[in-house]
Backbone:
C-alpha cells in the first residue's frame, strides 16, 4: 500500500497542483492531509476545491481553526503589526470561501487513524494532543515520547513545523512530510524567511515486511504563483512576495 501524506498547503494551489501531478505519475492508494490548508496563501478556494476532489481525510490544523475563531492559540510571539497583518489576511481568506467551503473546512478532524498495508498509521497536525505542539528532530526524548504515549502506532505523522524528518521511538516512527505551500530553511536568521521553490510531501509504502518512506520535493512555478499572489487582492501581498526573493 502507498500512502501519500500532505500537509501545510497554506492556500498555495499552484504548489499543490505540482504535488498532485507528481502523484499522478505513480498514484497512491490513499491520501491524507495533515492540516493548515488555506490560510495565508493567494488561492484558498482553489485549495478547498482540490481537497474536495481528492475526497481524502483532512486534519484540523491550528491555522484552519484560527481562520474561523480569530484566536491565536500558539505560543509564538508576534508584534502588534504582525498580528494586524495576519488578521487582515484571515478576513480576506474567509471572504474568498463560499458557505460550502467553510462547511467543508469545519468538518476537518483532530486525528486520522487508518491501516496501511497491515501497519497502523495515525496522522495529526502538531501532536495527537494539540495542533499547536512543536515537535522537532532535537525535541528532548522524554517530551517526544510523552506526546505520543496515548496513541502510539507503527507510523505517526504530523505537520505544523514545515520540516521533513523522521524519528524513531520505541516501536514507532514519527515523520513530518514538510510543507507543500511554504517550504523554507530553518537555519535562516530571524526575520530572514526565504521560501524554497518546491513543494514537500511524503509517501509511505508498505509491502509485507518491506517499508519505505520517501520524502519528496517537487519544483513548481514560483513566478506564476507570485503573479497570482500579486493579482489576487490579498492584503500585504508585496510583503509576502518578499519572502519568495523579492519582486518578480
Residues:
Amino acid at each position: 500500500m502507498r500512502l501519500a501524506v500532505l500537509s501545510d498547503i497554506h492556500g498555495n494551489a499552484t504548489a499543490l497542483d505540482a504535488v498532485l501531478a507528481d502523484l499522478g505519475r505513480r498514484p497512491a492508494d490513499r491520501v491524507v492531509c495533515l492540516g493548515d490548508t488555506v490560510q495565508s496563501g493567494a488561492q484558498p478556494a482553489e485549495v478547498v476545491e482540490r481537497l474536495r476532489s481528492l475526497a481524502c481525510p483532512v486534519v484540523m490544523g491550528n491555522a484552519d481553526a484560527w481562520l474561523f475563531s480569530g484566536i491565536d492559540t500558539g505560543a509564538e510571539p508576534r508584534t502588534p503589526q504582525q498580528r494586524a497583518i495576519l488578521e487582515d489576511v484571515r478576513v480576506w481568506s474567509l471572504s474568498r470561501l463560499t458557505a460550502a467551503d467553510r462547511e467543508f473546512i469545519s468538518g476537518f478532524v483532530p486525528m486520522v487513524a487508518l491501516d496501511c498495508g497491515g501497519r497502523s498509521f495515525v496522522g495529526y497536525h502538531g501532536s495527537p494532543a494539540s495542533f499547536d505542539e512543536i515537535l522537532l528532530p532535537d525535541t528532548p526524548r522524554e517530551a517526544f515520547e510523552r506526546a505520543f504515549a496515548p496513541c502510539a502506532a507503527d507510523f505517526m505523522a504530523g505537520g505544523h513545523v514545515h520540516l521533513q524528518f523522521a524519528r524513531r521511538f520505541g516501536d514507532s516512527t514519527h515523520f513530518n512530510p514538510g510543507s507543500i505551500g511554504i517550504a523554507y530553511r530553518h537555519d535562516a536568521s530571524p526575520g530572514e524567511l526565504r521560501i524554497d521553490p518546491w513543494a514537500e510531501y511524503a509517501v509511505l509504502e508498505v509491502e509485507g515486511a518491506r517499508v519505505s518512506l520517501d520524502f519528496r520535493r517537487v519544483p513548481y512555478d514560483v513566478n506564476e504563483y507570485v503573479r497570482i499572489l500579486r493579482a489576487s487582492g490579498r492584503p500585504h501581498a508585496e510583503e509576502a512576495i518578499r519572502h519568495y526573493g523579492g519582486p518578480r
